[in-house]
Design a protein that fits this description.
Layout (H helix, E strand, L loop, with lengths): L2 H16 L6 H21 L16 H10 L4 E4 L8 H15 L7 E4 L7 H18 L5 E6 L3 H5 L4 H15 L7 E6 L12 H10 L4 E5 L8 H19 L2 E5 L6 H13 L6
Length: about 280
């Protein structure tokens, strides 16, 4: 078995640990988001707004999502990457992918593109409501970890503003939650060995808090709009095991917005703000 085969086996094992009846949680959640939005859009705009979706890294691909819209003969296109904090590897690469596919169209639609939305009040208020809903049901822990997907340092040196968006949106979120500096910690997760990544690292933080005597910690990941491998396996399983190894405590994960009522309301708000003058 070579290195690549070994890595593929490790990833496959992780996916198996979170797989649900209908498939990948990310695909299922995204599909359900699309169905919920389609229903609202059809009712509100009398079927004049068509919606589709595509994955930047995976299936259903962006190409397939655009092919569906092309068959609907659209002449205006709003692209909403569901990455709240803009980064080159997510939002910018999505725009590149859209452009590469549209260049093959005979009739290119008028294009509007949303480049991140983490600093918008509607996003902050929705995240606040999601967290407070959890606390109302299960109580509030003494520490909240706010975890973002990490980014290679070289990307930041080259000008990627992703860490800035993470830091600034965290400031707005904790202010809305009335948290002081001792109530929360901002961290970065999902780093890969072999290069330097943005810190502080979530693993080091979890071990430190465990050794400090914390027995219960809440964790939320605002960089994901839908639960996926990084939240369901990495946080709920791997980091939970890490925390229990050093404290025998409980790391409580607060789910992503997924297709919840408040999550769909957020996306609808973003859509409607950006189709003004079109319908």
């Amino acid at each position: 078995m070579d290195v690549q085969d070994f890595l593929n086996c490790k990833v496959l094992s992780k996916y198996k640990s979170i797989w649900i009846k209908d498939g990948s949680p990310l695909c299922v959640n995204t599909h359900n988001q699309c169905l919920a939005l389609k229903k609202i859009l059809n009712e509100k705009y009398n079927n004049k707004v068509v919606i589709s979706y595509g994955m930047r890294y995976g299936e259903r691909s962006i190409k397939k999502g655009l092919e569906y819209l092309q068959k609907e003969n659209i002449n205006k296109l709003l692209v909403l990457p569901l990455y709240p904090q803009s980064a080159e590897c997510t939002v910018s690469s999505t725009l590149d992918c859209i452009g590469k596919n549209l260049k093959n169209w005979s009739n290119v639609p008028e294009l509007r593109f949303i480049s991140g939305y983490c600093l918008k009040d509607i996003f902050i208020n929705t995240m606040k409501e999601n967290i407070e809903n959890y606390w109302e049901l299960y109580g509030k822990s003494k520490k909240l970890i706010i975890s973002y997907h990490s980014l290679p340092i070289r990307n930041v040196i080259q000008g990627d503003l992703y860490p800035f968006f993470c830091i600034e949106s965290t400031k707005k979120l904790v202010k809305s939650l009335n948290l002081n500096k001792d109530d929360y910690i901002l961290v970065f997760q999902s780093k890969i060995k072999g290069q330097q990544w943005v810190k502080p690292c979530i693993e080091d933080t979890i071990i430190r808090l465990a050794k400090q005597g914390y027995k219960q910690i809440d964790i939320v990941s605002p960089s994901f709009s839908s639960d996926c491998l990084e939240t369901l396996e990495e946080i709920k399983i791997h980091y939970q095991q890490l925390f229990r190894k050093y404290s025998n405590g409980n790391l409580r994960y607060i789910n992503c917005l997924n297709d919840t009522t408040i999550g769909i309301k957020l996306i609808m708000n973003l859509i409607e703000q950006n189709i003004i003058g079109w319908v």
